[in-house]
Amino acid sequence: MNVVPSLDPASPRVRFGAELRRLREAAQLSQAAVAARLGRTQTQVSRLEKATRTPSKSDAERLDRLFGTPDGVSFTRLYQRIVAQPGAPVWFRSWVEEIEPTARILRSWDPLLIPGLLQTEAYARHLFGQAPQISLEEVEERVQARMQRGRILDRETPPLILVLIDPGVLCRRVGGAAVMREQLDHLLEIAQRPTVYIQVVDPVCLAGLLGAFMIAELPDGQPDAVHVDSSAAGQITTEHDTVSAIWKRYEAIRRWAYPESMSIEMIEEARRGWT
């Protein structure tokens, strides 16, 4: 089932899509005709109009050449406003704006931290605050962007979330005992939802030591997408060989996961230790 995210009508990405549709219809062009001029597929143009796809710089430039700038509308300027938005890094925006909100199933593994989608505000704020040479304003921008991501869990039809974590995550102090109690309480609460499954992985498992990643299963026959974390700029791709390799690693890690009921007991025990 295709899940349509809740979109901010004031966002430049929504404005980009709305103007594209308005000008296309005024010019009596089909989505297929515009797609041919952009070097895109009709589905990709449809997703641009629905604001479920982030436009590229070349998309904006080609649309300006196709339509001109009637009524002062410039797709290039709208694109610049999109990439200038604070919060997530530019390289990550295609994941949080286009992939994550439309995914049917999200699978994640993290050997070091609570996954971003499940982080509390205090936990995220402490993490971001540790970045070198970061300003308080930048910390708040990133915290709010992370909280915005988490809202997909509260949608009427949220994606299925399958989370694997290392037990060390439950014991790693982030922001002090109070922050950790709140964070683990949040995990326990959110694990009660029918669309969220959290499993702790036996520390004997070595297959996940190379780092965190996410796998997104997308609707309408679209290829799976993966986000592979790194300390600099992570990789986001639908390239078959990379996606296949991450799927194999996920399955290798999952084989070491404790049952969900046992995992919840482990989280509860770790929570009691944060006094």
TrEMBL record:
Parts of the chain that traverse the membrane: none
| Pfam families assigned to the protein according to its UniProt record, in alphabetical order | DUF5753, HTH_31
Q: Which domain of life is it from?
A: Bacteria
Q: Where is the HTH cro/C1-type domain?
A: 20-73
Query: SMART domains given for it?
Result: HTH_XRE
Q: What is this protein called?
A: Transcriptional regulator
